[in-house]
Automatic annotation (TrEMBL):
CDD domains attached to this UniProt entry: metallo-hydrolase-like_MBL-fold
Protein name: Hydroxyacylglutathione hydrolase
Start and end residues of each stretch annotated as Disordered: 253-290
Encoding gene per record: gloB_1
Organism: Caproicibacter fermentans
Biased composition (Basic residues): 280-290
């Protein structure tokens, strides 16, 4: 599935979303001393390193340039032994699907037990306001199934998994070392702050918004202000910005307002994602446009 789906998105989704300021991926590069990211068209995958150990968060498209771009960051796919999966959409698991080039065939996959029902065929993924069913995803890697709120360690890296259903039924976000929150397709950053992720791809829009409010409450009750890292629209270290519009959803059917001058016209155009920039420019956080 992943090869066909990746090619489809590169061609047709580029046309659908061009000029709407929906997708605003980070270029390949470094966020800080612990987090690096690779850009794959409109999606980002992330690598978290601590004391010489690196884990991967999501696995992007079935993307021909992944190994090349990892090399820009001095990362070797063979050293990736653990991958946290937020959800099973092909722009988040393409590199570990059965028809991929198996760069990570020996890695252990961590995925929510509810989300895994898509992989077993118990549930079918529906998109575009439930008008289309997507093919079943197949992943042959060893899997560890996670429950909501489950904490665990990978080496000396502390991880907590929180269920945030809505975009998919079993979507997880991952809080790492109480400092970084990898949110996949839970939050969408607009020019004026964070919204619930785009409407057309949600299993349940109302549930998606409720889940986002619950996630914010959990963070605030624990007095946590993590760096919040999204799958398609960058990152922020401002919790107020990140949850500014938690009760609203990004409407992917129209051009976004207010206008974001930093948003690419075509998120699938990677011409500005270069090795030189990767090695010389630190990635900037998302900020409110005044």
């Amino acid at each position: 599935m992943s090869k066909k789906a990746s090619k489809f998105q590169e061609k047709y989704m580029a046309m659908i979303y061009r000029g709407k300021e929906i997708f605003k991926p980070l270029n390949t590069g470094v966020i800080d001393e612990h987090v690096k990211c690779v850009r794959e068209f409109v999606a980002n995958i992330f690598f978290y390193t601590k004391n010489g150990q690196t884990i991967m968060i999501d696995a992007g498209y079935n993307y021909e340039r992944l190994k090349e771009k990892m090399e820009w960051l001095d990362l070797d796919p063979e050293n990736i032994k653990d991958i946290l999966v937020t959800h099973q959409d092909t722009d988040h698991v393409g590199a570990i699907e059965a028809d991929s080039n198996q760069l990570f065939k020996n890695a252990t996959i961590y995925i929510g037990e509810i989300e895994n029902k898509y992989l077993t065929g118990e549930v079918r993924r529906k998109v575009i306001f439930h008008l289309f069913k997507l093919p079943q995803v197949t992943i042959n890697n060893k899997k560890i199934l996670l429950k909501d709120g489950q904490g665990f360690t990978i080496g000396n890296i502390k991880v907590e998994a929180f269920l945030v259903p809505g975009h998919t039924w079993g979507h997880m976000v991952y809080l790492i070392d109480d400092t970084y929150l990898f949110t996949g397709d839970t939050i969408w950053f607009g020019a004026d702050g964070g919204y619930s992720f785009i409407n057309a791809l949600a299993e349940d829009i109302a549930l998606e918004k409720r889940s986002l409010a619950i996630l914010e409450k959990k963070l605030r009750e624990r007095h946590l202000n993590p760096i919040i890292i999204t799958g398609h629209t960058g990152y922020s270290d401002d919790i107020n910005f990140s949850f500014a519009h938690r009760d609203e959803v990004c409407n992917s059917m129209k051009k976004q307002k207010p206008h974001d001058p930093d948003a690419p016209y075509d998120g699938y155009d990677e011409s500005d994602d270069t090795e030189e920039k990767t090695r010389t420019i630190r990635l900037k956080r998302a900020n409110r446009v005044k």
